[in-house]
Amino acid sequence: MDGKWLPGCRQDVGAYRLAVSRWQLAVAALRLPLTLTIYNLKPHTPYPEPRCYPSRMRNQDGLSIETLLQHVGEEKPSGSPVAPPIVQTSLFVFDTVDELWESQAATIGPPFCYSRITNPTLDIVEQKIALLEGTDCCKCYASGMAAISSAVMSCVQNGSHVVALDTSYGPTKQFLKDYLPKFGVETTFADGLTTESFLDSIRQETTCVYLESPGSILFRILDIEAITTVCREKGITTILDNSYSSPIFQKPTKFGVDIIVHSATKYLGGHSDVVAGALCTSRERMEKIVANETALFGGALPPFPAWLLLRGLRTLPMRMKWAQESGNVVFDFLKNHPMVEEVFHVGDPLHSQKRLIEKQMCGSSSLLSFVPRLSKFVTPPPTPSSLLVPHKKEGASGIPSLYSTKEERGKGRGGSQARAEMPGEIEVKGFIEALDIFQIGVSWGGFESLSVPLYYNPSDWTEPKWVVRLYMGFEDPGDLVRDLEGAFKALK
After folding, report:
1. C-alpha pair distances (Å), 340 with each of 117, 250, 489
2. pLDDT in the model for residue 383
3. I need a surface site. Which of 183, 191, 260, 452 has the fewest CB within 10 A?
């Protein structure tokens, strides 16, 4: 075959295809009006306005928190899925440059631009938590410490001074004590036994007062309003970790707190399957925090864990009621037990700060701790004092625990760095390991009951003591009491 024929053939075929295409377009143009008439359609009909929830959901007056928690932030068109979808995307695109610029200028809520700042799934969660805490805004983070560190960094600079409780959450204390000094920020840890002793720690250069009430491990109560009143007069920002109470049992904004933080891993999430944090404050403060700490540190919560947190929030009020009942049942068992020296529980009806608790809180959770009476345990031969690891009041406890440093954790792995036993360690470990339902692990707030031992020494104690922290999950409280009784009996 002559090769010269092929190019011409291709040109003929191309011309034919072009003619057919033009003919098809002409026929389609003629058929379109007929089709629209037959099916009663109108060209270019705009989408109808979204039909949202009934107007009563937009009017929040008189509705309970349980009702609002299910619907706030979830207004959607008719026919939408009842469970909000996971918007798993890194960015959002626009039709115009002006729309892009508008989204970049927005720091809170829509229009959304980049999931490093916010996201539709995340926005729903943040609206609900802000509603619970009674603040203008909420920002969720990838962990409780991400929220806490962002809050603290937003109100300190080189030369600043911070006041905090000496029984603060271990990682928070480590952040204040060991990390901030390299930026020229100093922290004073007060015992918090009295409001006066706490306020006496404030200095001229104090810019931040970090509160926990109830505090960690011993659950000490601070007079929040008395402290925030003084701080506001001096222009000092107050931050309060509300993880123990959740917004169901305590509203810090009612007592003048500027910034509220949560380890949302705990009660807010509630299922031990998400690590998250939350920061709640006024819109003015939040815009600055989002533009700086959130955007630059990159700690915003991703969409999928935000969706898990949303799932947990729906049942928060019911779970907190169960937590209170379960915690009180276990407290009643422990308070008069012969092998228990002291119990630390906010729900104690004879609590020394009962009047302050009733002013600030409307419930207690299922987290408590107790000091075991070691003389009632089988006591092994004493460890020679020359082998004991000295206890550090301001640092770790000398044993692998919630507050141990990286180096001290390594000492518990045997070899040349093997750690000496602490007094009573064998008995306490035996008790913890004899528990069946209570699992051994850090954190709390999920479905499972947990136990963890600490060799603890706050500044007002003359010597360290063993403290066993218990968290009561969703198991039957009667079963938990029988589990504890069995562990005590195993050591008699």
Report:
1. 49, 29, 13
2. 42
3. 183
